[in-house]
Amino acid sequence: MLSVVLPLFFLVGVRAQTYSATYLPSNAPNHSEQGQAGTNQCGTGSNQTSQCQNAYINSVDDFCVFAPPEPGPASVIGNTERFEVSWCIKPGYGTRLIPDGSVTGAHFVQTPDYVQVTGVGDFTKINIPKGDAGGELDPHGADGNGNPIGGLVFSSAFTGQIQQVHEWTNFMSDSQFCFRACKDGPKAPGLCEHIYDVMGCEWNMPGNYGQGFAHCVGDSGEPMGVYGASTFHQGDGRTPPPHPAPATSSCTTVATIGNSVSVSGAAIPTNTTSSPTAPPTTSGTSATRTSSGSSSTSSSNAASAIHLPGSGALVGLITIVAGASIF
Ligand SMILES: *[C@@H]1O[C@H](CO)[C@@H](O)[C@H](O)[C@H]1NC(C)=O
Ligand SMILES: *[C@@H]1O[C@H](CO)[C@@H](O)[C@H](O)[C@H]1NC(C)=O
Ligand SMILES: *[C@@H]1O[C@H](CO)[C@@H](O)[C@H](O)[C@H]1NC(C)=O
């Protein structure tokens, strides 16, 4: 019996780090997995109907998340995880752009074993229905083809050169996000564990979920769910507390992140009847944000925002107006 178990264990251990393929954005196929809805051949543009499924996680102002391609109440993460598309802060990856002002907090941490960005915002602007507690995206999924199927993640944070990251995990809800991409190596499967998919960001990736933007270095922390010699599994009787957030240092704060796109990701206008949420009280954070370099384009963006339904665009417009009156 033992002689069978040991070789199997060995094979599984090796397989976890032997990836079937490694791509760069420049040589990725149209579809990296069977059943893929979008594409990995994304070009160097950006537009809000892109079906690109390549995500990048490079720095506090250069990252992407996966989110639904279409708006509407049926687009909860649980329903759309198989065909979600990439939404980025930075243009030029062939993806959709996260509208400015959607992300109100983003905290990037570079550790020896992974990079991570955690934060908050209004992700109804990238098609996540209001009230969706969300779910988890990862390169595995029920059939091993990933959620989304064929989603690829790249980073230049480890070597300065863009490379594929084979183990990653991204939680999305209507108001919170976290994305960790693990450096290829023996620790990657544990530090980018994907089996705790109902536990949310703060349990899986303890860190800073406050407002504002910062880039830090940090310690790697402990693998999700592993507490010394015992490993928790979802459904086990008692849920252990999250690991403490690993220490960070050398933090650089950034006033704002963005791309001067203020239009919603909703390619098809939604026919929403919900009343707009109250505008945020003018705070130091929003004033700082709107004082950024993107303010030169804010008037034209405001014009396009007016045509969009939904509370997100209205809040964005109010933010721009508030910024303009301050400066
Ligand atoms: C690539 O994939 C997309 C999305 O599935 C599809 O619409 C397109 O036709 C494909 N392009 C080629 C050249 O096969
Ligand atoms: C949007 O971006 C995708 C991916 O780069 C590209 O294939 C598509 O042609 C673009 N669409 C428009 C309308 O520019
Ligand atoms: C929007 O909703 C209203 C009320 O339900 C309906 O009368 C109208 O036709 C809808 N418009 C579109 C474009 O679907």
Automatic annotation (TrEMBL):
<keyword id="KW-0732">Signal</keyword>
<feature type="region of interest" description="Disordered">
    <location>
        <begin position="229"/>
        <end position="251"/>
    </location>
</feature>
<protein>
    <recommendedName>
        <fullName>Macrofage activating glycoprotein</fullName>
    </recommendedName>
</protein>
<feature type="signal peptide">
    <location>
        <begin position="1"/>
        <end position="16"/>
    </location>
</feature>
<feature type="region of interest" description="Disordered">
    <location>
        <begin position="265"/>
        <end position="303"/>
    </location>
</feature>
<feature type="region of interest" description="Disordered">
    <location>
        <begin position="26"/>
        <end position="45"/>
    </location>
</feature>
<feature type="compositionally biased region" description="Low complexity">
    <location>
        <begin position="266"/>
        <end position="303"/>
    </location>
</feature>
